[in-house]
Amino acid sequence: MTALKRNIKWIVIALLAIAVVPVMITAYEVIFTENKSVVFLGNYHPKVAIIVICYYVLLFCLGVVWLVREIIFITKLKKEKMKAELMLLKSQVSPHFFFNTLNNLYGLVAKDPKKAQELILKLSDMMRYSIYEGEKETVKIQEEIDFLKNYVELHKMRYHKLISVDFYCNIDENQKVVPLLFIILLENAFKHGVENLRENAYIKMSLTTSKNEIFFSIENNFEKTENQSGIGLKNLKRRLELIYPNQHELTFSVNENIYKAQLILKQL
Questions:
Q1: Burial of 236 (0-12, 13-18, 19+ CB in 10 A)
Q2: Closest Cα to residue 232, out of 84, 95, 83?
Q3: DSSP per-residue string spanning 2-59
Q4: Are 175 and 207 a contacting pair, CB within 8 Å?
Q5: 185: enclosing H helix or E strand
């Protein structure tokens, strides 16, 4: 039986319980008394009236208890649904990146074993972070920065061209943030910018914190025909709606071949 059917069943039972008693009493007074007008419980012994009133008080209390239980049930259901949706959204963060990186590492092992070892450690750290830290509600912001830096280093390995990536940070290391939010914007910059440019590709990032805000911005150049929207950004917008309702600002701007995204997270 679904939750809706269960609710309807108990609502019908409650309505019948509330309605049956007064209807029966009123019908009795109309049929078996000679009063021209009927007053509810007007001709009954006080003890009977008290019993009926206690009955209604009991029904009222039971109704309140039932209502509270239903509210708790619906609240838990919504939280579980939101949690499940968040887990699904997190699982959609770039699994193909790891596969591509492994393929590149395979070819690098024979050419430069030492560099391959370093990159394997970075990839291992990223995978650990995605699997274990990514499940947490919040992480230290420095951990998120290390994750982004590893992502940049691994991406540089993939391209046989010069890439300029600047990352400015001014943070409170103890401040916390929801994991795997900024990576979507960084991934977008690589996918729609660096990958499609033959030369002079660059990315500029900035991450700063204050007592009540976390500010992240990222800028990249791109081919003018390139559209930088996609599933990743829709994923990010939905996660922000669920985790930071009315506590975030996500904006995008395009100036000729320069794309810029800004994300502000407000800590209340």
A1: buried
A2: 95
A3: -HHHHHHHHHHHHHHHHHHHHHHHHHHHHHH---SS--TTTTS-HHHHHHHHHHHHHH
A4: no
A5: helix 182-192
As given in the structure block, the two tokens for residue 16 are 């019948």
pLDDT in tens, 179-227: 888 988 998 888 888 888 878 889 999 999 998 899 999 999 988 765 5
Total length of the chain: 268
Per-residue pLDDT reduced to its tens digit, 224-265? 765 555 567 887 888 888 888 889 999 999 988 899 999 999
Question: Which of 198, 215, 190 is CA-nearest to residue 96?
Answer: 190
HEC string for 120-136: HHHHHHHHHHHHCHHHC
DSSP state of 89: H
Q: What is the pLDDT of residues 21-71, one digit of tens each?
A: 666 666 666 566 555 544 455 555 566 667 766 776 777 787 778 778 777
State the Cα–Cα distance between residues 250 and 232, nearest whole angstrom.
14
115-141 CB burial, b ≥16 within 10 A, e <16: ebeebbebbeebeebbeebbeeeebbb
Strand ranges, E, within 147-241: 163-170, 176-177, 201-209, 213-221
Alpha carbon distance 138, 179 (integer Å): 6
Strands 248-255 and 213-221: unpaired
pTM of the model: 0.65
